[in-house]
Amino acid sequence: MAGGFTYFVILAGMRTGSNLLEETLNQVEGVTSHAELFNPVHLGGPNRAEAFGLDKAARDADPMALLQRLKEAPGLNGFRYFDDHDPRVREAILTDPACAKIILTRNPLDSYVSLLIARKTGRWRASDVRKRKVAKPTFDAAGFNDFLDARRGYQEGILRALQVSGQTGFYLDYEDVQSVEVINGLLTFLGVGAGVGRISRKLIPQNPEPLGEKVSNHAEMARAVAGVDWAGLGRIPNFEPRRGPGVPRAVATKEAGLLYFPVVPFADGAVRRWMTETGGGLVEGMTQSGLRDWMRDRPGFRSFTILCHPLRRAYAVFRRILEDDDFEGLRLGLETSWGMARLPNGGDPDIAQERAAFLAFLRFLRANLNGQTPVQQHALWASQLSLLQGMAQFAPPDLVVRVETIGADLAHMAGLTGLAAPGPEVGEVSPQDHRLRAISSAEVEAAAHAAYGRDYQLLGYARALPYSISGLH
């Protein structure tokens, strides 16, 4: 996509070279970049009182009005937009194909150190080497990690927005801003016939020294940077779809302020009985609007969800699929495509036979959650982490309960709402849990870990089942 744009945005960050890029573009007749028009602190500059006939107060009240005036102004106009600028215009510019996206990046370590120096000296631009200020800040490892996470999130958000809208941007690195050829290529992308003969000389490099000489604690910086996972090798792949909050599954008490977000297929009969006895009955099947009304009527309410060991949950799903007629088609597919033996109806199958069938199911589960099967990724066997993230889209639960400590945890939860009630009674270990103990093995544990790796790592579960399994059922 080249030309056809009515305006442009430089999507950058502090200390990436955006000032120099802007000055160079502004050399071209008919092209104007109006600085940081949507910086919440100022209006494109600390001494600028108005832009396109609007002052800062008017812009803050209606940023889209300023954006519209920029679009309608003569020539090709644009501005610089950073991750901390007015979020109300972000979606408008990212989804507008008439807006040319210039995406400027820089090595984040260089940017961060440059930012530390600028903050220490108070000098954000340099045009005269004789007035240059020098400082050696202390590198802050924690601060750099926060900076890096924010920068990555910003860039990933831009990329995602362009991908889903079928657009492309013009990508530049810090060094590219120094290239006449690259800048002229950018102008061609913008649909501008003219080019530049040189890079703007209004600005000079502020800190030309080697990176190691710019901070007072180079050795500490080197150690911190060595521990950064630049390639994302520690990232856990996630191919699951984003889950909704599952509000219709929510269970609330009629009188008390207790709200429960179930994680299927957990056998939670004891929890529901406890809520009924403690809170005067249950309210179920609510819409989001209905649940908001319930929340509004019960200030001080508390919400919770219950997690269990991933292996235990996988086995509960396995048994549900074997026993529920709704999954007859899936059972057939597991038998024909994944080698899962058909287990006899009624009674307990042979231990070895059931273990083999469960292992086949776990292999399917891993492939399915990695997006490698034609079977839809059902909420019944979705990772618990994805279900938690879905809940958080509506309202994150106050307490994430582990099934092993459910009695004490829910008694505490009730106390927070003013109820002096013991938690639900934990009975004998269920037959299903006895059966899981019988078929478990190192191979089974490894297969469950392969299927639910994110739950194990990010929710803190060990491979082996806990010594004591709750008797809730």
TrEMBL record:
UniProt-recorded name of the protein: LPS sulfotransferase NodH
Annotated Gene3D superfamilies: P-loop containing nucleotide triphosphate hydrolases (3.40.50.300)
Species assigned in the record: Albidovulum denitrificans
